[in-house]
Request: fold
Amino acid sequence: MNQDRRDRLRDAAIAVLAEAGGRGLTHRAVDAAAAVPTGTAKNYFPTRDALLRAVAERCVEQYRALAASLAGAGPGPADAQQLAALLAGLLRNVAGPGRPRVLAYLELQTEGTRRPWLAALLDPIAAADFAAHAHLLRAAGLPGGPEQARALTLALHGAIPHLLSGAPATLAAAGLDDLDRFARTLLTVVCPEETP
Reply:
């Protein structure tokens, strides 16, 4: 099969999932989003489960590409201030250009509650965040043990749905209306004795 067309269909499926949710993810909707003849997505991904698998695999690929680009950007943040800036930047990406990928991922996680095979495909994304955040904490000269990595990762993961929904009162209550302040405060809470 044509890999470029397959990737185009998978990217279109991410866009459909982000825009229309799990119920809107159909072969026909993917064909329309990819601007290909009707039936093309079904030829590549014959069943709904095959389509979900393809989207999950593409989300994992995109996550790994993002992680590799961050890893290739240097040794990591040199201090807590740089780490806070990095975390705020990641959250801005979630609310901006990364929004479709993250919305699709969250939709897939919901589908994964009913399809254990799908949850297993997505598991490397969330699991890798714990190790990545431990590394970032240590690079910034902060404690990067399991407790701190868990607290940081779960706080960031918990913030994402609120950030995506964009409800002003919730954003203000969560401190997500100022991402720079949110990231600095989060590091102060996660590593209270180490950050100013």
The two ends are 55 Å apart (CA to CA). The mean pLDDT is 92.
